[in-house]
């Protein structure tokens, strides 16, 4: 088994994830795994970094596929006995003018952004070693979507005692409510992406709390963040930040020094803790 520290970035064949891997290759003292659901796109991205003189390793990972997540888990357990840095970056968004019915957009978006990310956490968090760092890439849109929720939902999503099961129930209810076209009546905002990212931010707060309760002595720091508005296939060419600039906050959180006792369980943008 290798003692080398290891970092994993989900959805990193392009966009912000790719830029996070690029930065980690330069700054992380260990093996950096670029992961992608499509091995061809993943290997191509590794080759692109190679041309820049950077050495990333590749492992397949489709966060929608539990078998794929478990294959990565088993690989990390066997080769490294765990992992040191996990960046949950993979995500999807329908374009604003997409005509796919809203209920389908809700189901598909929540499936990857919330349920897929949660499945990765369920399988990989137990492997995170002491002093490990976990970064869940959410979005400022989670804050604006929270503002668009009913008072009752806002209270639940801001609660310091909400459980993961309760959060899963709420995310499932959103999808069901869109199918019955009652989501607005039930207090939800009209954004599937926004609700999926509320899920990611609240999940991070819950996971950080669980780490405090169950693994206090392990000094693991887990946070959610917004990369900013970044020029990628998702956000388009008019966005204000380059992918490398978008990677800055996630990389800052992934590389928090071993003597740092925070941030933990926070939502950050531009390396600054934001009020949730
Ligand atoms: P992007 O360019 O579209 O890249 C998304 C990445 O996620 C791609 O590598 C994609 O792989 C991967 N992915 C999608 N579904 C996946 C799955 N099921 N399993 C594994 N990988 C999957 O988007 P981006 O702008 O870099 O976004 C990265 C993250 O930042 C997302 O979580 C996004 O919500 C968040 N974010 C972005 C912005 C922004 O302005 N760009 C702002 C706030 C938050 P394929 O190539 O195979 O599709």
TrEMBL record:
Tell me its EC number(s), please. 1.1.1.184
Gene Ontology molecular function, alphabetical: carbonyl reductase (NADPH) activity
Give a yes or no for keyword Transport in this entry. no
Q: What is the first-listed, main subcellular location in coarse terms? A: cytoplasm
A cellular component annotation (GO) from this entry: cytoplasm
Transcription regulation as a keyword of this entry, yes or no, is no
Q: Which UniProt keywords apply?
A: Cytoplasm, NADP, Oxidoreductase, Phosphoprotein
The record's subcellular locations are: Cytoplasm
| UniProt xrefs under Pfam families | adh_short
Q: Which family does it belong to?
A: Belongs to the short-chain dehydrogenases/reductases (SDR) family.
Q: What's the protein called, per UniProt? A: carbonyl reductase (NADPH)
């Amino acid at each position: 088994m290798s003692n080398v520290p290891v970092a994993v970035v989900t959805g990193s064949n392009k966009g912000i994830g790719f830029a996070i891997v690029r930065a980690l290759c330069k700054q992380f003292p260990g093996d950096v795994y670029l992961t992608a659901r499509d091995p061809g796109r993943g290997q191509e991205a590794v080759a692109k970094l190679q041309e820049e003189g950077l050495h990333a390793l590749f492992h397949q990972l489709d966060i929608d596929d539990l078998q794929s997540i478990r294959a990565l888990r088993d690989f990390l357990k066997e080769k490294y006995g765990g992992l040191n840095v996990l960046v949950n970056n993979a995500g999807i968004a329908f374009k604003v003018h997409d005509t796919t019915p809203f209920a389908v957009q809700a189901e598909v978006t929540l499936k990857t952004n919330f349920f897929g990310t949660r499945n990765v956490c369920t399988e990989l968090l137990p492997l995170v070693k002491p002093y490990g760092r976990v970064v869940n890439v959410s979005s400022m849109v989670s804050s604006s979507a929270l503002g668009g929720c009913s008072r009752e939902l806002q209270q639940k999503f801001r609660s310091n005692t909400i459980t993961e099961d309760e959060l899963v129930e709420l995310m499932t209810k959103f999808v069901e409510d869109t199918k019955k076209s009652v989501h607005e009546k039930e207090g939800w905002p009209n954004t599937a992406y926004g609700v999926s990212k509320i899920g990611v931010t609240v999940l991070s707060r819950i996971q950080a709390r669980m780490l405090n309760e169950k693994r206090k002595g392990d000094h693991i720091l887990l946070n959610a963040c917004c990369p900013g508005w970044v020029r990628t296939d998702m956000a388009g060419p008019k966005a204000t930040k380059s992918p490398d600039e978008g990677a800055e906050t996630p990389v800052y959180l992934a590389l928090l020094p071993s003597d740092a006792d925070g941030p933990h369980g926070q939502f950050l943008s531009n390396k600054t803790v934001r009020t949730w």
